[in-house]
Amino acid sequence: MTDDLRGMLLDSLDKESRRFAAEHRGEESALYEHAIRPRRAWRRAAEATGALAVAGAVAVGAVLVTGPRGSIEPAPPAATPTDALLARDWMVLGADVDPDGTAAALADVWGAGIVDVPACAELDTYARLAGRADLGGEPVPLGTVVSSSGPADDPVNGVYARSFATAEDAAAYLDTVDSSATLCAQAAADDGLDVTVADVGIAATAGTGVRIDVADPGAEGAWRLWVHVQGSEAVAVVTEPHADDLAAQAIRAWFTAAAG
């Protein structure tokens, strides 16, 4: 700022001060102080060095530039490719994994009648982590798990995995399974089947899950489906009646391997 310009500004401020004092005397002096204080502050700033003013302008500019960028959320991670899921090295302690094995479907266990109920028929689809294609990802069969101490023809636990685009999509899939199982429980009661639905978790394993048991009060054992979601991945385990229930161990082993 040049000396001539600074002098003109200061002279203008002094004239404003005198005009205001003439119009607002006595008790209105406080009003004057309030009104003119911003101008005095500006004058003190004007009398400061030009470098300080420039530095202030740069600082304000930096806030304006960096502020909006800091509020942008990072893009969600991409879904794990199907081949990466198949290549994941995982194992269940005390159990054998047959990558080509499959577990019995609900209809295979309790007869075709149960699949006449749409919500119950959907459970077989959701057990394979199929359905809800709008949420992305492809279901991947991982085989069966059976206790290594039992005979080769023992009932098994069938395991499936699916990687969704986002954690929100995985959670939406879990909600769909829960809703379908609840409708199945209401309808299956008319056919004499007990369907129980429970929200479950696993100690030392992040995420949440839903466990569904379908049983015939006149028979032993239950067909069980356990779907667990952690982040954008889901694992489903179907446990056949009379099988050693290794669902929790299989789910824990899967996500432990994912963590490396």
Write the layout of secondary structure elements.
Blueprint: H1 3-23, H2 29-47, H3 50-70, H4 82-87, E1 95-98, H5 106-110, H6 118-127, E2 140-147, E3 157-163, H7 167-188, E4 194-202, E5 205-215, E6 222-230, E7 233-239, H8 247-259
Structure write-up:
By secondary structure, the chain is α+β, with helices and mostly antiparallel strands. It has two domains: 3-65, no CATH class; 82-259, 3-Layer(aba) Sandwich (Protein Transport Mog1p, Chain A), CATH 3.40.1000. It is 45% helix and 21% strand. It has eight helices and seven strands. The chain has helices at 3-23, 29-47, 50-70, 82-87, 106-110, 118-127, 167-188, 247-259, and strands at residues 95-98, 140-147, 157-163, 194-202, 205-215, 222-230, 233-239. It has a seven-stranded antiparallel beta sheet, sandwiched between helices. α1 (3-23) runs antiparallel to α2 (29-47) and α6 (118-127) runs antiparallel to α7 (167-188). The longest helix has 22 residues, at 167-188. It starts with a helix and ends with a helix. The relative contact order is 0.13.
